[in-house]
Write a structure and sequence with these properties.
267 residues, mainly alpha, ABC transporter involved in vitamin B12 uptake, BtuC, 13 helices
Length: 267
């Protein structure tokens, strides 16, 4: 792996993975403890509509994906607040419509053949310097927001009704959290792709939750695990000539089942 770092694309891939890993560790923790994994999956898959919009109208990739993801995420946040009993159905519909819009617009884009695999399963080895800077800024904004409002997110995550009685604007922070998930999804798409985003957002926090007793410790351990999965997955993909995104997720999946075995033998 060390010799691979002489190549710029590998250094960029490692940096992109580290940035995504830090974001996944923090936001993924909030996703898991708030039980909004399905919303995160819906945003990730609906984001494909943003890819189609970007290519069809000749917009920068990040502009199309970020704009569409934020729009869809706000719709999902509104639905989950106003109609919780049918929110899973609406999220599923938005998920499907978003992907359908993306596929149709890409089909209609004249003279352009899009590499679908790079968006579905990630293209971490093709991340340019410009995207790294954007990912760094987005990641910094997300981390600052989470830690500045840490106590509000803590209260909302474990007892939303009590937090509301204590004066915490739970509705606002619900929209805020869903919006940050959309930003995180846009970042992670370049690393593992649309289909695998949900795994990187949920596997490290789920493992971390089993071995920690506070939200902040869960975030820290989840971040460490996300970074480890990324580094090991990149090493495996480089060594065995495998696709990077699925390699990262398979490392996480192996750790997921290993944690179950450890708990089984400890019991």
């Amino acid at each position: 792996m060390i010799e691979a770092l002489q190549f710029e694309f590998m250094r960029n891939a490692l940096m992109a993975g580290l940035l995504a890993g830090i974001t996944c560790g923090v936001i993924g923790t909030l996703v898991v403890v708030n039980r909004i994994v399905f919303i995160s999956g819906g945003i990730a898959h609906a984001a494909y509509g943003g890819i189609g919009i970007a290519f069809f109208f000749g917009l920068p990739y990040l502009v199309g994906v970020l704009g569409f993801s934020l729009l869809v995420s706000m719709l999902m946040a509104w639905v989950t607040l106003k109609n919780r009993h049918r929110s899973d159905t609406v999220i599923g519909v938005l998920w499907a419509i978003g992907m359908a819009i993306g596929v149709i617009l890409i089909d209609l884009t004249p003279g352009y053949n899009v590499d679908l695999m790079s968006y579905l399963f990630g293209s971490i080895l093709a991340v340019p310097d410009s995207d790294l800077w954007i990912m760094a800024v987005m990641g910094a904004l997300i981390l600052f927001s989470v830690f500045f409002f840490y106590h509000e997110f803590l209260a909302m995550s474990y007892d939303a009704e009590f937090a509301q009685l204590r004066g915490v604007p739970v509705g606002f922070f619900h929209f805020f959290l869903i919006g940050m998930i959309a930003l995180s999804v846009v970042m992670i798409i370049r690393v593992v792709g649309l289909i695998l985003v949900i795994a990187l957002l949920t596997i490290p926090p789920y493992i971390a939750e089993r071995y920690t007793d506070s939200l902040i410790r869960m975030m820290i351990l989840s971040t460490i695990l996300s970074i480890l999965f990324t580094i090991i997955g990149l090493w495996l993909s480089y060594t065995f000539n495998l696709t990077s995104g699925p390699s990262i997720i398979m490392v996480g999946g192996a750790a997921f089942f290993l944690s179950f075995l450890i708990d089984h033998f400890r019991a």
